[in-house]
Design goal:
two-stranded antiparallel sheet; 6 helices
């Protein structure tokens, strides 16, 4: 990651908790999603492009959350009644809850 990209990510995530060590439980720092959208977001979220923060990042209660896990219908233009099941499938595909996957910093 270039110095400029690193500064952009740090500025975007400044209000969130500090990034945990690689493999540690996620604390919602938002680093991975601010650095670049995941493959799910790039495929399904309008405006999700490489090198820019993911448009599905949601900030609440002092941390970032994955909007595609929390309320995918909002980003996919679908009714909210399927959010729980679809969000669980997306979370599983992304490895949500498996630990920090950003091996930098």
């Amino acid at each position: 990651m270039t110095d400029e990209a690193w500064r952009r990510v740090e500025a975007f995530t400044a209000r969130a908790p500090e990034k945990p060590a690689f493999g540690s439980p996620c604390n919602g720092c938002g680093f991975c999603c601010a650095a670049e959208p995941c493959s799910v977001a790039r495929q399904f979220v309008p405006g999700a492009i490489d090198g820019a923060p993911c448009p599905a990042m949601e900030f609440e209660h002092g941390r970032f959350w994955c909007g595609m896990v929390r309320r995918p219908g909002h980003y996919l233009g679908l009714p909210a009644w399927g959010d729980e099941e679809m969000g669980a499938m997306i979370g599983e595909a992304l490895g949500a809850g498996k630990g920090c996957c950003a091996d930098v910093g």
